[in-house]
Design goal:
Elements lengths: L2 H16 L1 H9 L21 H25 L5 H16 L8 H19 L3 H7 L2
Helix pairs in contact: 1-3, 2-3, 3-4, 4-5
């Protein structure tokens, strides 16, 4: 296994596990570093509200999809990129409305990771990167 594949798998696993914090905060009010600030769309919606719980389920879905992507990359299945793209879209859907609530490092690091995945999937260098990650 080459170093680039290990780095990508590590990023997918870490990013996926990071999404557990959104789910655990919304559903179990565990202290995961989120603030009590409302989301950016209105002042009445927090992570603990009913809508916050719906977004918590999307955080959970993103986590599962990132972990599936890592597993499929590990086993050499090209479907890993499809899982990673769907997970990245879910990740952006949940992180952007909650930008005032999420820890800044997670906000920026997660967004960068999502953009890297989307650039790999839709950039002109996709075939070359996929060959490197075999």
């Amino acid at each position: 296994m080459n170093i680039w594949k290990m780095i990508m798998m590590g990023m997918l696993v870490m990013h996926g596990l990071g999404h557990s914090t959104g789910f655990l905060t919304a559903w179990f009010r565990l202290p995961m570093g989120f603030t009590d600030k409302p989301w950016i769309i209105s002042s009445g919606v927090t992570m603990y509200s009913a809508l916050g719980k719906v977004f918590g389920l999307i955080w959970l879905a993103a986590m599962v999809l990132f972990l599936l992507a890592a597993y499929n990359l590990f086993t050499g299945q090209p479907v890993w990129l499809t899982y990673a793209v769907i997970a990245s879209i879910c990740s952006l859907v949940v992180i952007l409305p909650w930008a005032r609530t999420v820890v800044p490092g997670a906000l920026y690091g997660g967004t960068i990771a999502n953009l890297v995945i989307l650039l790999i999937a839709f950039g002109p260098w996709k075939d070359k990167i996929m060959e490197i990650l075999k």
